[in-house]
Amino acid sequence: MSYQFLQLEQHDQVAYVWLNRPELHNAFNTMVIEELHTCFKQLANRDDIRVVVLAGRGKSFSAGADLNWMKQAGQASTEENEADALKLAQMLEALATLKQPTIARVHGIAFGGGMGLASACDICIASTDAKFATSEVRLGLAPSTISPYVIRAIGARQASRYFLTAERISAHEAKQIGLAHEIADAEDLDKKVQEIVDALLLGGPHAQAASKQLIQMVSNQSMNDELLRQTAQHIAQVRQGSEAKEGLTAFLSKQAPAWTSNSNNNN
């Protein structure tokens, strides 16, 4: 499928989704949101894709929402506004629930919805020149649809500061508060991304999908008998699968599991 504001590239088992609106710092409007949502839904059905990297063309990862688009939305009816906002929420949820591990490759600015995209990915790798912000309050808005993912990434206490002040967060600060997992100089950013991609390709794809489901299931839950039962059921189902049997057999025989053969051949 061809896109107007995205570029989708595949390198072996890795899909690179490039936001491609560089003249506006990859700000998104209705079309960008729809294209991202469609792209994520299609990638979710691709068994040949093991890892998804989200990145931005030009000087920035994403400046968030296109302000002209937001102004027009503010003049619409309540019902139209809710429908419009729901599309953004659904796009972010499609990214956050992809079965494949996801990496945000962040450089330049990641403001508002851009920070939401970075937070919705499983792993965030930022250039040392990156700047993050939940900038909405300075525009008289609130970071509503991105809030579940940003709060998941940095916690409610840090969100209490940055949601209210809209301060810019440096790459080093982003790592300190848990938003960025790794930072690298601009010239080494792709190298660092590749290191994480290589590590991900060593894991079993079904095990990784199950692990993502596990995080969703366990996060913010109190330890009780029901949670114990759920986690026991989860591992019981996983270890009965063919991938677990392959992985354990390969480990005990000191062989590489089958799922690494393609990635090893491609490196």
From TrEMBL:
One of its GO terms (molecular function) is enoyl-CoA hydratase activity. It holds the Pfam family ECH_1. PROSITE patterns: ENOYL_COA_HYDRATASE. Belongs to the enoyl-CoA hydratase/isomerase family. This is Enoyl-CoA hydratase/isomerase family protein. It is an enzyme of class 4 (lyase). The keyword Ribosomal protein does not apply. InterPro entries: ClpP/crotonase-like_dom_sf, Enoyl-CoA_hyd/isom_CS, Enoyl-CoA_hydra/iso, Enoyl-CoA_hydra_C, Enoyl-CoA_Hydratase/Isomerase. Its EC number is 4.2.1.17. Keywords: Lyase.
